[in-house]
Amino acid sequence: xxxxxxxxxxxxxxxxxxxxxxxxxxxxxxxxxxxxxxxxxxxxxxxxxxxxxxxxxxxxxxxxxxxxxxxxxxxxxxxxxxxxxxxxxxxxxxxxxxxxxxxxxxxxxxxxxxxxxxxxxxxxxxxxxxxxxxxxxxxxxxxxxxxxxxxxxxxxxxxxxxxxxxxxxxxxxxxxxxxxxxxxxxxxxxxxxxxxxxxxxxxxxxxxxxxxxxxxxxxxxxxxxxxxxxxxxxxxxxxxxxxxxxxxxxxxxxxxxxxxxxxxxxxxxxxxxxxxxxxxxxxxxxxxxxxxxxxxxxx
Length: 299
Description:
Elements: H1 4-17, H2 20-27, H3 31-45, E1 50-52, E2 57-59, H4 61-86, E3 94-100, H5 102-119, E4 123-129, E5 143-147, E6 155-169, H6 171-177, E7 191-194, E8 202-206, E9 213-217, E10 223-224, H7 227-235, E11 240-244, H8 245-254, E12 258-259, E13 269-277, H9 284-297
Parallel strand pairs: 3-4, 3-5, 7-10, 7-11
Antiparallel strand pairs: 1-2, 5-13, 6-11, 6-12, 6-13, 8-9
Helix pairs in contact: 1-2, 1-3, 1-4, 2-3, 5-9
């Protein structure tokens, strides 16, 4: 009988370690045995999964797709065995790879990490903070925290919280340039903007008299891809910024940033969601982390 799970494990190890010999050492197999198992998969599928570069073995597009699915299948097998061996309440364990934006990570995740690891001491947390939207399968990440609209329908999502956006400026900036009374006044202000695709040079507003929504074009001498960077420059008095309230709540409370044009606030809400690859056997450590965040962050 075919040992397809074993073959998958071998191919995943080769992909991770970049050579037959390194994979063999990890699995206690000879390089020739590893090579034969990979060749058996390729023969069965009728496609090439690996090519040799100058320094290492590299996955073909078909290989990348196969390995991504193999990881899910192997994780499902591992979780099934844990559930059977330890019962339905098997203790979460193993490495958990999480990705989040810099702002969300610094303000929400990092303060909660000690509590989570104290509750689940057999979990090892690997946290990466980036404002880029990553490919979970390609980056071998278990789950990501995303803020704003979700586009990848292949991912499962759980809503954690939400935040409105606020236009703010430092007191020193407002003293130098004045406080805008209406959105039309932004033409004379330096507006700090984001440079990623879902951002825009038109900021949304709502007429306080009629409730009608409208936009105004803004400009300035800085664009960035990080909420933490835009916040820092707003605090330094470089210009006005439109930032998620969760990110700057403490700054507003301390008087370091001052909300402006609140009567015209569009009231748009950004959702904060935990996203992960959906399959039948969600690993206990992923479920535990998502449940923990929902418990501690909601609202």
